[in-house]
Amino acid sequence: MPRKKKFTVEDLYHQTHLLLMKVGYDQFTFSLLADELSVSRAAIYKYYSNKDVLISDYLTFEMKKLLEEFDQMEWSSDREEHFNQLFELIFNYSDVHQLSNVFTQKMKMKHEKIQFKENISKELHERFFGHIQSFILSCQETGFIKKELPANLLINMIFHSVMINTSSDLTQKERAGYIREILAHGMFQK
Predict the structure, then answer these.
(1) What does the alpha-carbon distance between residue 128 and residue 123 come to, in Å, rounded to a whole number?
(2) Which CATH number describes the domain made up of 1-49?
(3) Are 106 and 116 in contact (CB under 8 A)?
(4) Cα–Cα distance between 66 and 20 in angstroms, integer?
(5) How far is CA 115 from CA 49, 75, 82, 102, in A?
(6) What is this structure's pTM?
(7) Which of 98, 75, 107 is nearest to 159 (CA)?
(8) Domain range annotation of the chain
(9) Fold agreement (1-49, 63-185)
(10) How far is CA 166 from the centre of its chain?
């Protein structure tokens, strides 16, 4: 297969994402990535010295996109619709959340500290947790959510629901819908 001479950063990140989802962190190599991009490994090494720096930059890029989308969201004043918007946004980036979690664990195992540029991961978590917290607390004040339920537990359940993996053949959208339904309405027939 002839090699292309140029690729964009977006091309690089897109193929990095696809490859990480397909083969996982441990099997991810510049050789595989170069094949997917139809370039030489040397072309990738011009930009990145190793896969950890590339993955860190890719995750930072995706988290910035998520924060931009979060900032541009026109949040509904209807509580249930607001919850649906929040849940949809979280699940639209569930792959990034899962890859970030795996990457962070791998860096801890390697005893390396590769921080996402500009502490974007920390900012993302703080802003999302803060938004979910204010949403939950305001819903508890108005009686939309039961006051006796611990807010911190609900916040963590919502934010980390993207980590719930199923072995079934559910699509990401179906999985998100069922988890949202369980969180919002429970699992028992009334």
Answers:
(1) 8
(2) 1.10.10.60
(3) no
(4) 19
(5) 16, 31, 32, 14
(6) 0.81
(7) 98
(8) 1-49, 63-185
(9) no
(10) 17
CATH class of 63-185: mainly alpha
Residue in the structure block whose two tokens are 């916040």: 155
What 38-45 contacts at long range (C-beta under 8 Å, 24+ apart), as own/partner pairs, is 38/1, 38/2, 38/3, 38/4, 39/3, 39/4, 39/5, 39/7, 40/3, 43/5, 43/7, 44/12
CA–CA separation, 148 vs 154, rounded Å?
Answer: 11
**Structure tokens belonging to residue 63:** 């988290």
**Cβ count within 10 A of residue 57:** 19
For the chain, 190 residues long, give each residue's pLDDT as a single digit of tens.
445 568 899 999 999 999 999 999 999 999 999 999 999 999 999 999 999 999 989 998 998 898 899 989 999 999 999 999 998 998 888 888 888 888 888 877 776 666 655 567 778 778 888 888 999 999 999 999 999 999 999 988 888 888 887 667 888 888 888 989 998 888 888 7
